[in-house]
Task: structure prediction
Amino acid sequence: MLTAIYLQRRRIAFGMFFLFLAGLLDFGRFGMWDYPQVVLLKSVLFALACGLIAALLIPLFPAYRQVFEIMSVSFLAIRIAEIAGWAGEYGRLFDTTWGFLLLAVGFTLLHHGVYGAWWARTPIRLSWRGVSRFKTRAAPDRAWARLVPAPDRPGDYYSGTLHEFRPVEDADFSHVLRTRMGGPQFIEQRVRVTRNEAGRAFAYDFDADVSDRNRDLNTGNWSIELRPLGNGTAVDVVEEVIATTPANALLFWFDDLGGQVAVSMKRVLEDRRDPTILGWLRRQVRAAA
Result:
């Protein structure tokens, strides 16, 4: 539980900051800034309470984790609207009959604006690079067998969702990598292995046979290096995507995707439950298989 909370620290801190600002605007009204210590204390306690609730609920309901950052920004917008005069008799937006409807519509529009699929139809792209480093008590040969895809044993790959890693004869790529997405659905990538030092390092470039508009979203590279330790293995993983949407880049950042990968790999290697978003997604895929 604590690991899952730590991996969501960016999301929780972001939400708490905006809720703190909303608290300042709310608790400072009606002359309360004559008592600034009270306003600050109430705002801090409000932000801490909401952050604690988020820390408890996000690991339990990861599918709804984006609600926290959208809600926190919405709360600040509500307080600004109230100060601007969009309020009822007692200075509250929710004193009006349309207040709750406005909140629901505003929340939906904000969520769609930040995380909506419409970003894929725009030319705006951001590069993303995730770095995952960890040490495990697993031996180097076990780490290699579980963390590096192999054509003859795709089921050994740590994710549990690799369907095949099939070598092909092609001038542009060397393998086809297919990953289960649940039920009959798969993601297929074309892979060109660029480094293969057994037991030490493995790397490949990847892309997908998709439209020109979406090709950069599915183009990048992945690499792993293993170093034996006295009582285990040190692992470095780097993944880069050339051009992803701002929505994906923001979600990757809030989720600390590099950290998620490190924890997920380490837990699988050591036969412990995977508390990460990646572990949760894989359990959903397996359940739908």
Observations:
- The two ends are 27 Å apart (CA to CA).
